[in-house]
Design a protein that fits this description.
2 copies of one chain form a homodimer.
Chain A (H helix, E strand, L loop, with lengths): L15 H15 L6 E2 L11 H14 L15 H12 L10 E4 L2 H7 L9 E6 L3 H8 L4 E6 L18 E5 L11 H14 L2 E5 L25 E6 L12 E4 L5 E3 L5 E3 H12 L5 H10 L2 H28 L3 E3 L5 E5 L6 H12 L1 E2 L1 E2 L10 E5 L4 H15 L2
Helix pairs in contact in A: 2-8, 3-8, 4-5, 9-11
């Protein structure tokens, strides 16, 4: 008798994006003449950089010729890409060896799959509001999940509480959905907490390319001793627009160790290598070449131009909300604006008002957790034209 | 205190391919003038089909232009590819709806990840010898694994034993590593066993494109009622040479249900959808277009030509071993020849002799399980030239 995994019963059905689609469709059916602008989705819209396209064509040609054809590659990624990633980190003073880098099909897969190497008895600490993957993947394994509040009072960047005993902590900076960031000093406090508790920090830096200036760290490994307690996830989705091209990576420090419940000391880098070689077969060769190209000098320049475009969108949005006197968070080091619904409105009420009066679609903050109630997530990933038009409408409606 | 997953301690270190590399390197160092031919590895060598290359270029161009750029796609795959897969199955009389098909980065990932939707208390039944992924991924979750013997006596295609109570059964046909196949009647017996025991069959058909003639089924869903007890894995790796391009798929029948240990009835199709949307972000758009192209009329014709090439290699190998009077299995519906080591030699002894006397590298059967002892796996994926030369050497050495 095969039994299904009963922990799936504990998952909440996520009606968020279905419900958004339903409300938008209902509105459009009643008002077919209106032009709807969607600013709620965390997906890029600019095409891949010219250098990346050029290299993709070249790699495709290699796959069509026997002499240069590539079959199975190393599960942990080709050296050429791991070297490019190591160089990218080195530019910011973080030293990684190639065998600390594991190339993957994206940070979402990694954030979920990393749970494979940990015992199911660990207590997981996540923020509220949160990227739902951290929560759901652990519920699926029956793990206990506890929360820390991300609120305006702590700038949506909660700090460790010595009274709370957590085994594994997810941090995301810049954060999805709030756009908040941790400073180096704050991350040092988290590293201190993790070392004191023998905990592990799972650090999601998928949005690091949006960080402005020198103050905010791009990697938790900027903090001394983080290699003793942290695993980092990063992705080409946001830096290089790879949301539909699929490439990410995990950094697992070489000497990172933890015990099993029976007291056996395990090397987590070796465990992740074993996990990947057993349950994964690597990323397409052509995609790895594309990712490498995005980190080249020309590639990075073209990627930064795209990011500058999104950041200018964010500035236009912030200016508009400033004019309306509507408070928001994020938007500076992040493609996300976390809007405080005006007049104490609830998330879905503001969603409906924005849809009806400005024909703009956002994502209700309540979909990301209890503390998301009263907020709405917007993104700067729209086109310039749509972003300007959306903000003109919003200002026309909400400016007092 | 973060604890590591202690079940990893139960994994056997797999020295197989490391040990092969060591022995080959040692031999080459002592005999630098010898030309080594590797016939042990299950990786394709022919380039991607021209139609696939053409479509890849076109899809890459789409990614470089804003109007046709694709970001996040559906986690379960684009409809265009799922429709192409449904059509491919329909040609053989198997009717699939699109929401039964889940596109993935490959059968290896799927065979491992499928375990997520089942309780850890299930007893898994696998063959010996076996593709190690079935074993290791379940050891990682602490599941009990029991074996059925695949031996010359049962043509390496063991049948159900009513006395054995298994909850989940892995079947692979054509089999890696033995090249054995199940007939429709045999699969019907397995379906009968599964239905009687409320078990689930995980059916790996990654090598189905090598099946000759009409007698051997390409899919377990050729068997009536299999949709009530089976999940099938397939891949573009072998049919279209996608080992380095990465695309596969899982078929989970729409109405397939099993209970949790608490008696709650769960739909496994919905569970897998939930698993994939939570822990996966889809396959690159360009790769999905390439996979679609490989199943087009021209694509399939070009793919069959490549498979015919490998099958001709297999015929050359079988002829050579026939001349030597060395017994083998597989080779007909499969790229694998499962060689019975002559003179009762052990796997590693025959490996050494083949390396030293014919300079040919195989894979010792003992690496796939206890019953693999005394066998050696060879593949027909080499070049024609190398295959001919390897067999000439083998015949020269072993012909009596």
């Amino acid at each position: 008798m095969a039994y299904a995994n009963g922990y799936y019963c504990n998952l909440k059905e996520t009606y968020l994006f279905t419900e958004i689609a339903n409300r938008v469709n209902t509105y459009v059916a009643a008002h077919p003449e209106k032009k709807i602008i969607r600013l709620g989705i965390g997906d890029v819209t600019l095409p891949l950089a010219p250098v990346v396209i050029e290299v993709l064509h070249k790699a495709v040609d290699e796959m069509g010729v026997k002499e240069t054809f590539r079959g199975y590659g190393p599960e942990q990624g080709y050296d050429f890409l791991r070297q490019a990633i190591a160089n990218y980190y080195a530019q910011r003073g973080v030293d990684l060896s190639l065998d600390e880098i594991f190339v993957s099909d994206g940070a979402k897969s990694d954030c979920g799959n990393i749970g494979d190497i940990f015992a199911d008895t660990n207590v997981m600490l996540i923020q509220d509001p949160v990227y739902p993957v951290y929560l759901d993947t652990n519920i699926m394994r029956g793990r206990k999940v506890i929360y820390m509040n991300a609120t305006p009072e702590n700038n949506f960047a909660p700090m460790p509480d010595k009274k709370v005993k957590a085994d594994i902590i997810y941090l995301c900076s810049p954060s999805n959905p709030t756009g908040s960031v941790y400073t180096k000093e704050q991350l040092a406090k988290w590293v201190e907490y993790a070392l004191e508790n023998n905990a592990i920090i799972l650090y999601d830096s998928a949005y690091e390319a949006f960080i402005d200036g020198e103050e905010i760290p791009h990697s938790i490994f900027s903090v001394p001793d983080a290699k003793k307690c942290a695993i980092e996830f990063n992705s080409f989705s946001k830096i290089a627009g790879f949301t539909g091209t699929r490439c990410g990576y995990v950094v697992v420090p070489k000497n990172l160790e933890r015990q099993t419940e029976n007291g056996k000391v395990m090397n987590l880098n070796s465990m992740w290598l074993r996990r990947q070689t057993t349950k994964f077969n690597g990323v397409p060769y052509i995609v790895q070449r594309a990712a490498e190209a995005s980190l080249s000098k020309d590639g990075l320049q073209q990627c930064w131009e795209n990011i500058a475009y999104y950041k200018e969108n964010a500035r236009i949005m912030m200016k508009g909300f400033d004019e309306c006197g509507i408070k928001y968070y994020g938007g500076v080091h992040s493609p996300y604006l976390w809007i405080q619904c005006p007049g104490g409105m609830k998330s879905w009420d503001f969603f409906d008002e924005l849809l009806a009066k400005a024909n703009v679609v956002g994502t209700p903050g309540s979909g990301f957790g209890v503390n998301g109630e009263g907020f709405l997530r917007l993104t700067s990933f729209g086109s310039r034209e749509n972003t300007i038009e959306a903000m003109e409408r919003i200002v026309a409606v909400f400016k007092k």
